[in-house]
Write a structure and sequence with these properties.
- The structure is a homodimer.
- In chain A, strands 1-2 form a two-stranded antiparallel sheet.
- Chain A is globular.
- By secondary structure, chain A is mostly helical.
- The first copy, chain A, has a single domain, classed as Farnesyl Diphosphate Synthase.
- Chain A is built from 14 helices and 2 strands; from the N terminus they run H-H-H-H-E-E-H-H-H-H-H-H-H-H-H-H.
- At the A-B interface, helix 2, helix 6, helix 7 and helix 8 of A face helix 2, helix 6, helix 7 and helix 8 of B.
């Protein structure tokens, strides 16, 4: 494990630790609550948490604050994964090498667990745990809401499903992937500018996150085609099987790789002015570009 | 139509008008967006909007503000109805005399439409439209989130489904109904104290809404057993058919009616100190107790 991978692991553990303490305070013990934890604490690198912590570095904001914002983001991400796997959506029985939430707990409980994780995100952002002005909290809620519903994750998933089996042009696929994956990653980085009260930097920071998101999605598509099933913890070559509209399907490997390198260069340029404060964010982009699982 | 029913209709129309203008600004025109509007603008009395406006009266807060908060609440309510009707949940093909959202748009679109309406609620509460301090907005978000997820609506629906075909005691059924229906109605009234910055009144106001919610649920159960299918716009006697755990099923008509009257008296007592400012809220409780559709 590289130093960078160790750093990711440390941040993921801190986020889990916060979420576990938040959950334990809720004093619930029914199957719905169990399903929420099953979906949320399913391992994974928690790359969104890391992006958030890395973006907060740019403005020298303390990690403790970043971790709580990251925890809210992971709840939203986890809601989207649980719902994406549902029989009426991608119909995936496995996620990270384990049964998906609806396979384990049933469909209705999985839907309700996703809904509950989505709402918990907004609860976390406005809770007393988060040591921020309520003005900042209100702005965080607005930005997170905008990228979780029909203009973001839910809208992207809708497009993804409606594109199945239909060829799409590059612009349309990028639009869909920005909504489905990019918007939330854009929030990870934009949140740093919101918390730092740097309103003028919000747009630029969001764009960096969107680009990292697109890079991430390209890498994910490449892994689906060329990845090792054992390292991935799930069957590969699923996109093609389901007729998913991906950039690779439309443009082939070479052009997709060129786009990935262009995005990487663009991200590096945008971050130049932050000097060494951008180290973790730069390493994230590099890691995403080269990851093999 | 009585003067009170006309007043309800006026408030419902104002809420719809606000929501329609909010929706038109989003400039979306795909099927997901259509499904959201289909679920949201499906008619209905919008009793939650009225409760909100009525509770804001207690503190002399302008109706314009109440309507925007009410709009957010209607989005949450609409999300819960769309998801409740799903095949894996209550499996209802009709809602208010029309096809339910999943029947009309398919299951995945209905799930995503529900998710999107839930997130829009938080967007509305923190948008610039709502002329309130961001501190107040943050407090509204926290309270609404707490009653929308596993501790509220989603948790109540989970219990409701898990109770099907199983007898429950009075306390357990009231607990389930408080979560499923009461908590959101409690937010309608609590929101007035939050906006008025009357922190000491929050608990009492929430309790009034919870009691109105329970009264509402009892009336709903009574209508299901004794209601006229044509006036209801949906088949009656569904609870019994599905083996739903209701107070009537456990205690019979007489004891349920006694409980309803007790709740009504309690609500009247709690509102006495507000004098004529409580008129609309008192009329709401009376209306709920006596409604026939």
């Amino acid at each position: 494990m590289s130093a960078f991978e160790k750093d990711i692991k440390i941040v993921a553990d801190k986020t889990d630790q916060y979420l576990k303490s938040y959950f334990s305070q809720q004093k619930q013990n029914n199957e719905l609550f169990e399903a929420m934890g099953y979906g949320l604490f399913a391992g994974g690198k928690k790359i969104r948490s890391y992006l958030t912590v890395a973006a907060f570095d740019l403005f020298g904001i303390k990690e403790e604050t970043a971790i709580i914002v990251a925890a809210a983001i992971e709840c939203v991400h986890s809601y989207s994964l649980i719902h994406d796997d549902l029989p009426s959506m991608d119909n995936d029985d496995f996620r990270r090498g384990k049964e998906s939430t609806h396979k384990k707990f049933g469909e209705s409980t999985a839907i309700l667990a996703g809904n509950s994780l989505l709402t918990i995100a907004f609860e976390i952002l406005t809770s007393n745990h988060l040591d921020l002005d309520k003005e900042v909290k209100s702005d965080l809620v607005f930005a997170l809401a905008s990228c979780s519903g029909h203009l973001g994750i839910a809208g992207g998933q809708f497009l993804d499903l409606s594109f199945e089996g239909k060829a799409q042009d590059e612009k349309t696929i990028i639009h869909m992937q920005n909504k489905k994956t990019g918007e939330l990653m854009g929030f990870c980085t934009e949140a740093a500018a919101i918390v730092a009260k740097k309103n003028n930097d919000r747009e630029e920071l969001k764009k960096i996150g969107l680009d990292i998101g697109l890079l991430f999605q390209i890498a994910d598509d490449l892994l689906d085609v060329y990845g090792d099933q054992n390292k991935l913890g799930k069957p590969s070559k699923q996109d093609d099987k389901k007729g998913k509209a991906t950039l690779i399907a439309t443009f082939g490997l070479d052009k997709t790789n060129v786009l990935a390198n262009e995005l990487h260069d663009k991200i590096k340029q945008s971050l130049e002015k932050y000097g060494t404060k951008a180290n973790r964010l730069l390493s994230s982009a590099e890691f995403i570009l080269k990851r093999d699982h």
